[in-house]
């Protein structure tokens, strides 16, 4: 038995292996975000989708515990470009890892209608040490959550600009909501008047909701 143990020890010296690799981690529990950055675009989502809640993953290094544990986060104002309450709601600064679990989430609610169509906004959260956890890897102690309402001008827009007017992503997003998805130049060539009928409904909608500031040219429509 001693001879076998000696052979194993010598083998580890030669190969650089470690006895610790064969046993579960038993040190202090560490906590990290699962990633250092997230990106979300309302983009081609229907206009009716005004808010969304993103779930930011949190994970621990160490064994699950038989009781609930708490982790703490803080808002990094120096790197956050989004405006609180206008673009997003402040997340809970105290999160929980359930009993028996090795992961949790931070919920961040963002608001679409106040996002300018050409801007990307960012909320940066920092993980803090606490009674239940120390901090894990340096690169995942913070997470930058970026979001936008950007929807680039489609290349077919000039084909219908006589009726649609100046491009506004809200026009296209409302169309996507009514039509069921984005369209292409080929769709315009094959279904121009059907598409215009849907855009006419978009025009009527924004005519009934001037608070959005979306306007169309005052011209006759062929549908």
Architecture overview:
It is elongated, with a radius of gyration of 27 Å. By secondary structure, the chain is an alpha+beta fold. Helix content is 26%, strand content 26%. It contains four helices and nine strands, in the order αβββββββββααα.
Rg, nearest Å: 27 Å
Q: Using the alpha-carbon principal axes, give the shape.
A: elongated
Helix content: 25-40%
What amount of the residues lies in strands?
25-35%
Strand order of the largest sheet: 2-9-7-4-5
- The span between the termini is 91 Å
Biggest β-sheet strands, sense, barrel = 5 strands, mixed
The tally of strands reads: 9
**Number of helical elements:** 4
- Regions with little confidence, pLDDT below 50 for 5+ residues: 1-26
Tell me the structural class.
Answer: alpha+beta
Element order, helices and strands? HEEEEEEEEEHHH
Instruction: Return the average pLDDT rounded to an integer.
Output: 88
Topology:
Layout: H1 2-15, E1 30-33, E2 37-41, E3 51-61, E4 69-75, E5 94-97, E6 103-111, E7 120-128, E8 134-135, E9 142-148, H2 157-164, H3 169-179, H4 185-208
